[in-house]
Amino acid sequence: MTLSLPRLALTTLAGCCLAAALSACAPLMLGGAAMTSLVAVDRRTSGAQLEDEGIELRAAARLRDAMGERVHVNITSYNRQVLLTGEVPSEQDKQAAEQLVSKVENVRGVINDLGVMSASSFSQRSSDTLVTGKVKASLVDDKLLQANAFKVVTERGTVYLMGLVTPREADRATNLTRGVGGVERVVRAFEMISDEDMRRIATTPLKPDTTPRQAP
């Protein structure tokens, strides 16, 4: 089943989430949860979805304990692959953040795209939030894509695309994203699957995960 949100709803949601996402003073942020939580179906198992949430929480706690508020790190986990975006003061901090996150239980890989620079401004983060909303809206509008198969993260004009997708879907989503206003660069962080895998996932009912979750 494909669950779609109309463009107006996504645009409105982007605006509503903007204040909440940017008003918090804490520099460590969990990636993508607000928008994607409204989509009831995606291609990860229910257990994987819960595990990704847990990974984000545990990773944020470790970074907060080790680095405090001197870094701005966004943590996005998709199918146990973790994307780190944001800004840190030094190359040493960048490597330290990756090492800390890589040791979080059940993380199978880390994509470290942290910038060594001053933290991004409020206006930059506002722009990034709006770009994410526009990219999501373009994916929803495309009738050949299942928008709920993608996770979208934007950092300083760079859009990161994650998801369990076929090569055809990856190429189409990439081309659509490149045409969105405000997008400066697109980074593909997909996990590729075959058409057969996609059909199997689409016809396999998700089962609730009953495994106890580890506290952060």
The H-and-E topology, N to C, reads as HEHHEEHEEHEEHEH
Count of distinct structural domains: 2
What is the number of beta strands? 8
First and last CA, distance: 32 Å
Q: Quick one: CATH class of the largest domain?
A: Alpha Beta
Task: Tell me the structural class.
Answer: alpha/beta
Using the CA coordinates, give the radius of gyration. 17 Å
Please bin the fraction of helical residues. 40-55%
| Largest beta-sheet characterization | 5 strands, mixed
Shape annotation: globular
Number of helices: 7
Strand content: 15-25%
Describe the structure.
This protein has 216 residues and is α/β, with parallel strands linked by helices. It has two domains: 25-116, Histidine-containing Protein, Chain: A (2-Layer Sandwich), CATH 3.30.1340.30; 122-203, Histidine-containing Protein, Chain: A, CATH 3.30.1340. It is 44% helix and 21% strand. The chain is built from seven helices and eight strands; from the N terminus they run αβααββαββαββαβα. The chain has helices spanning 7-23, 33-36, 46-67, 91-102, 122-141, 167-178, 195-203; strands spanning 28-30, 72-78, 81-88, 109-112, 115-116, 150-155, 158-165, 185-192. α1 runs antiparallel to α5. It is globular and about 45 Å long. The two termini are 32 Å apart. Mean pLDDT is 85; it is low at 1-8, 16-26, 32-40 and 209-216.
